[in-house]
């Protein structure tokens, strides 16, 4: 039984109050505490403040130095670890591989993540496991691989490459959208990004601008986040009315720049449904990816899609907030701030039922991307390097059937084909010939 305490000033028993500063000296009343303060303050020492509630965020004074260290993390060991397909999980393994070697990995390899029951902790455990296995495999490899003179199909290159495959943790798999059926890779990435933001401890009461400001303070935004600005410029007085919003992934529609006659040809091709008969399906499998043996839509480039995405629109009969005139205005858009990791999704599902199935339009890309033409106020570090490509290998242009593979570059300029459990080094010529579904760029 706890012994009763006596008042430190009047010595009365059963003193129920204590000093709020040192939480040690007992008193029977507030008057006794005030009377005893002249004597007690010499020995009264405040307790250490309780540690703040940990979140997966960094104080802004410590954020920049930590971010600089995290974003400069180098992967020189290669991308040697494949992920086993757990049953229609190829879309998820590709997304996890792209995140494992993204700038986000630098944060999760250095940061002490709070809690264990969230996506950030699960992803950190996965990334650390893969990077550790890469280091071990690299150290025990008998010879160098992936030199510039190595061809794509070099037997010596494949034999010299030491790889292995591992399982995706069940706890990580349960946190994704996977339900045993094929899903969309870009939707899986959006869901993972949303769960990573939730792991940073957002208040549910935040909305609108307050939520956007909170997102900008997280490591998720520091890696993937960008601010896109739209502004209406009045033709009468030149008044500019800008608005910005946070974007974690840029969606570029593959239909941008296509003419009406291109849609008509694609629509005629898409009416062929080879999966309705066995013979037609066999013919489609022989042809491989594509809607039909007819000529595909004209090719385009990532730079051209970006140019059309940020193209200026003209609005007639615009009511200006400054001069109050109804006149024509130009709606301009661009990056206000650019991300450290630009995730780009090529939307190949035409809008408004313009045609059936997937639009297999060829989109070419290069290893570097200059975002300065698409920035409102371009800076000096807007050059990006491609580090990962996700491809969807379909049959006859189907959107509900196919297989996902990805290509990832390490920091020794070697490209790797990651196809579930299968891992092998490839050359840049093999990468640049693929038709991308998602592209990942890191700031150079």
Give structural attributes:
444 residues, 4-stranded antiparallel beta sheet, single chain, alpha+beta, 14 helices, globular
Q: Could you characterize the architecture of this molecule?
A:
- With 444 residues, the protein is of the alpha+beta class.
- Helices cover 31% and strands 22% of the residues.
- The protein has helices at residues 30-40, 60-71, 90-100, 103-110, 119-139, 155-160, 170-174, 185-199, 208-216, 219-224, 260-270, 278-287, 302-309, 428-432; strands at 17-18, 26-27, 81-83, 164-166, 226-234, 240-247, 250-253, 300-301, 313-319, 326-337, 341-347, 363-364, 368-370, 383-393, 403-409, 415-419, 422-426, 438-443.
- The strands form 5 sheets. Strands 7, 11, 13, 14, 15, 16, 17 and 18 form an 8-stranded mixed beta sheet that branches. The protein has a 4-stranded antiparallel beta sheet with strand order 6-5-10-9.
- Strand 1 and strand 2 (26-27) form a beta hairpin.
- Helix 2 packs across helix 4 (103-110).
- The radius of gyration is 29 Å and the shape is globular.
- The chain starts with 16 loop residues before the first strand and ends with a strand.
- The model is unreliable at 49-62, 145-159 and 289-294 (pLDDT under 50).
Terminal CA distance: 68 Å
| Structure classification | alpha+beta
Residue stretches low in confidence (pLDDT < 50, at least 5 long) are: 49-62, 145-159, 289-294
How big a fraction of the residues is strand?
15-25%
């Amino acid at each position: 039984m706890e012994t009763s305490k006596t008042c430190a000033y009047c010595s009365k028993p059963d003193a129920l109050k204590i000093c709020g500063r040192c939480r040690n000296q007992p008193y029977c009343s507030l008057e006794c505490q005030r009377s005893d303060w002249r004597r007690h303050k010499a020995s009264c020492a405040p307790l250490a403040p309780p540690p703040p509630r940990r979140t997966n965020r960094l104080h802004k004074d410590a954020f920049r130095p930590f971010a600089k260290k995290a974003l400069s993390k180098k992967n020189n060991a290669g991308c040697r670890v494949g992920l086993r397909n757990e049953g229609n999980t190829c879309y998820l393994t590709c997304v996890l591989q792209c995140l494992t070697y993204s700038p986000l990995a630098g944060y999760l390899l250095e940061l002490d993540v709070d809690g264990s029951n969230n996506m950030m902790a699960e992803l950190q455990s996965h990334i650390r496991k893969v990077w550790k296995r890469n280091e071990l495999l690299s150290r025990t490899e008998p010879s160098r691989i992936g030199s510039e003179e190595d061809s794509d199909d070099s037997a010596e290159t494949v034999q010299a490459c030491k790889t292995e495959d591992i399982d995706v943790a069940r706890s990580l798999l349960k946190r994704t959208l996977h339900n045993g059926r094929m899903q969309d890779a870009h939707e899986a990435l959006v869901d993972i990004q949303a769960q990573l933001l939730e792991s940073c401890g957002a208040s549910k009461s935040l909305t609108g601008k307050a939520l956007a400001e909170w997102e900008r303070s997280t490591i998720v935004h520091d890696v993937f986040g960008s601010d896109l600005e739209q502004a209406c410029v009045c033709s009468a007085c030149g008044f500019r009315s800008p608005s910005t919003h946070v974007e974690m992934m840029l969606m570029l529609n593959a239909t941008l720049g296509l003419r009406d006659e291109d849609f008509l040809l694609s629509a005629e091709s898409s009416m062929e449904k080879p999966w309705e008969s066995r013979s037609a399906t066999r013919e489609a499998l022989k042809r491989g990816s594509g809607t039909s043996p007819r000529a595909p839509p004209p090719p385009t480039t990532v730079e051209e899609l970006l140019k059309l995405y940020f193209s200026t629109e003209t609005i007639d009969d615009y009511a200006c907030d400054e001069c109050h005139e109804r006149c024509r205005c130009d709606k301009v858009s661009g990056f206000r701030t650019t991300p450290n990791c630009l995730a780009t999704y090529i939307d190949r599902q035409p809008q408004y039922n313009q045609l059936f199935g997937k639009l297999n339009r060829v989109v070419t890309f290069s290893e570097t991307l200059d975002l300065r033409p698409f920035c409102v106020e371009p800076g000096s570090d807007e050059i990006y390097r491609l580090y990962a490509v996700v491809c969807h290998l379909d049959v006859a242009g189907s959107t509900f059937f196919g297989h996902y593979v990805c290509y990832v570059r390490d920091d020794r300029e070697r490209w790797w084909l990651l196809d579930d459990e299968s891992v092998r080094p490839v050359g840049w010529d093999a990468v640049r010939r693929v038709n991308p579904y998602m592209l990942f760029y890191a700031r150079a």
